[in-house]
Structures are given as structure tokens and as C-alpha cells.
Amino acid sequence: MLKLAGIAVLAVGSLNPLAVPSGACEVSGMTVSWGFKESFRSYISGSIAQGQWVVEGDIGYETPAFSFSDGQGFVSPDRSAGEVSFTGSLTFEGHGGRLETTLANPRVEFVDPRSATLFLDVTGDTMEEVSVSEDNVAFASVSWGASDVDQVAGIWGVDNATVVLTEAGSKAFGTYPAGEELDPLDFILQASAGCLQEKLSPWGVVGGVAGIAAISSLAVSYTHLRAHETPEHLVC
Q1: What's the pLDDT tens digit per position in 160-194?
Q2: Does position 155 have pLDDT exceeding 90, yes or no?
């Protein structure tokens, strides 16, 4: 997972930025690290499915997680609303081509300071051999507790968020029922310097020495993130 103490960007793409509403903070970069579901990856790459996954655009992979990089959009200063979009795709293939499902163009829509919805375009054939072609599927709900904010630098980081498959995500992807817990998700978001509110009760940064250390680690992490970009690649 993408930890606040050490982050690597796995792919970089280009994206037409969303229009930034008045009063919102522009997001110039966001990176998400997410393993999708470890047991499903093991199944795809194992002896039964004998498959692989292919990543393109803003989506990359480095064991054990996929990464969405270079996301752009906006977020409100209190982090209660906003959206960030990525381009690129992730395709799971297996069973000699009978299974082929592509998840593309991720979009994170913030619902409140502690939750978001992950949207994906879903196309292909599920494990049940059902053909799917749906854009902008509300694929999973994402929730977290405390987060780290560097108000001066405009950096917001969340570690180990809970990801749960929605009803719409279950219908589009197949394989798992609604409510299935997927792998945890981490993200770091770069907003306009000085725009984010640093502390929200009860979601503020941990106080004292621990809080200062967390924010310092967050700033170093983002610098490390931007310095270790790698091109898109194929993984199986």
C-alpha cells in the first residue's frame, strides 16, 4: 500500500482538469494505491485462470498494489466535497480469454471529510461470461478515520481506507456480492497551497509532537512520490 512514509508513483498520464468551482481548492495531483482484491489477483495469476492484468495510462502496478497517478480536480477547503479524475485502464484477463474485464477512468468523489465513492467505467466479460459495458459506475464506497493535512503545502493524505463493493459495482463486475470488502486504499492529494483547512473536529490532525511528525512525513512523502515516477507497463 501507499504509506505516508514512502510512496512511488507508478504511471503518469495527462488529463483535462475539471472546472474548479468558486471557493474550492484546485487539485493538481493525486495518487491512489489500491490492491483491488488480493484473492482475486491470486486467482487470475494462478494455475486455474492462467491469466494476467494489463495497465495503461494513469494506472500502474507494482506488487502488491495498483496505482492511480496524476489525478486532477478539486476539493472543498473543509474536504467535505470534491472530485478527482484519472485516465487509464486496468484489464483482468483469464481462462483463455473467456474472462476479460476492463476497469477504466477512475474518479474519486468525496462525500464528506471521511468518505468517498470510487467511480469506474466497466467493460468486458465477467467470470460468469456476462457481457458488460457501463460508464461511470459507482463501483465502491471508501471510508477512513483520521487523516493528515499539511495546510501550508496543501497536502492531504489518507492511509488504509476501507473499500466496500457497491450494488452497482457488484452487478457490473460480477464475482462478488454487494458489501464485499476489497483491499484497503491509500491516497495523497496535492491541493492549492494554503487552501485546505488544517484541522477539522473530530477529523483533525493528531496534535502535539506526533501531529508535527505526521505532517512532516507527509510532505517528504509527496516529494518522494513526484521524484519516482515510472512509465506504464504490463504485468502478469
Answers
A1: 999 999 999 999 998 999 999 999 999 999 999 99
A2: yes
User: Residue 231 in contact with residue 55, Cβ under 8 Å?
Assistant: no
Q: Can you give the C-alpha Rg of the chain in angstroms?
A: 17
Q: How far apart are CA 167 and CA 232, in angstroms?
A: 31
> 51 — phi, psi (to 5°)?
-115, -160
Q: CA 150, 184, 90: angle at the middle one, nearest 5?
A: 100
CA dihedral 127, 66, 179, 160 (to 10 degrees): 160
Distance CA 119, CA 103 (A): 10
What DSSP designation does 228 have? -
Strand blocks (E) in 86-236: 88-94, 99-112, 115-125, 131-143, 148-150, 155-165, 185-191, 234-235
37-85 tens-digit pLDDT: 999 999 999 999 999 999 999 999 999 999 999 999 999 999 999 999 9
Identity of residue 113: P
Which helix (H) or strand (E) is 73 found in, with range? strand 72-75
Distance (Å, rounded) from C-alpha 156 to C-alpha 222? 10
